[in-house]
Specification:
- By secondary structure, the protein is an all-alpha fold.
- It has a domain at about 30-140: Cytochrome c-like domain (Cytochrome Bc1 Complex, Chain D, domain 2, Orthogonal Bundle), CATH 1.10.760.
- The protein has helices at about 5-25, 30-45, 45-50, 65-70, 75-85, 95-110, 120-125, 130-135, 135-145, 150.
- Helix 2 crosses helix 6 (about 95-110) and helix 5 crosses helix 6.
- The radius of gyration is 29 Å and the shape is globular.
Length: about 200
């Protein structure tokens, strides 16, 4: 239906054009399939140095907002790893593999996959800002850390500790019940943490 009023057209036409161009820019620029393939490639080519959780025990870590801000864009990350990584065969993995690894790194850091694949087009790569794309993952990180104390409360069966309390365990803070020195005892490692009945007791 044609717009009859020039005044209305002056406002509505730019609004419609903006809505049409806003869609693709909101996607992360990679697909779920790319991230899945990237995880496989990362585990075989990168994890030995950068860690299975991207923590970087032998090389710089690849997780966290600081890392994402340092690389700034997918283009900056691609330009480096596609010529320098892995050290044993720098630049030899192929364009598709490097793109998949970047997709996995982005997903690991919280970016959500979209419908459009990540390509080696420089304009696309440099338009994908890593810190912005992964901001959702960074916002969810505190919630995950809140659950950590509950996991730490898990106890270890005494059969695996030779009857000794592990440091920091709840029971280690309590004084041990005194035992008669003359009574022979059986290490609890052989009783799965259960006290044996005393000889002659009813």
């Amino acid at each position: 239906m044609p717009l009859r009023s020039p005044r209305i057209a002056r406002f509505v036409v730019p609004l419609i054009a903006g809505m049409m161009t806003a869609g693709p820019s909101m996607a992360a620029g990679f697909t779920a399939e790319q991230a899945a393939a990237g995880e496989t490639a990362y585990n075989s080519q990168c994890a030995q140095c950068h860690g299975r959780q991207l923590e970087g025990p032998e090389a710089p870590g690849l997780a966290g907002q600081d890392v994402m801000q340092n690389w700034h864009s997918a283009g900056g990350l691609y330009d480096f790893i596609s010529v320098a990584m892995p050290p044993s065969a720098p630049g030899q993995l192929g364009e598709e593999t490097y793109l998949n690894i970047i997709a996995y790194i982005m997903e690991f850091n919280g970016a959500a996959p979209g419908d459009e694949p990540l390509t080696a087009d420089p304009d696309l790569l440099y338009s994908v800002l890593l810190a912005e794309e992964t901001a959702a993952g960074a916002a969810a990180a505190p919630a995950a850390s809140d659950a950590t104390p509950a996991a730490e409360a898990t106890s270890v069966p005494q059969a695996f500790t030779w009857g000794k309390q592990l440091p920091g365990s709840p029971a280690s803070a309590q004084p041990a019940a005194p035992t008669a020195a003359a009574e022979p005892s059986v290490p609890q490692a052989f009783t799965w943490g259960q006290q044996l009945p005393t000889a002659g007791a009813n």
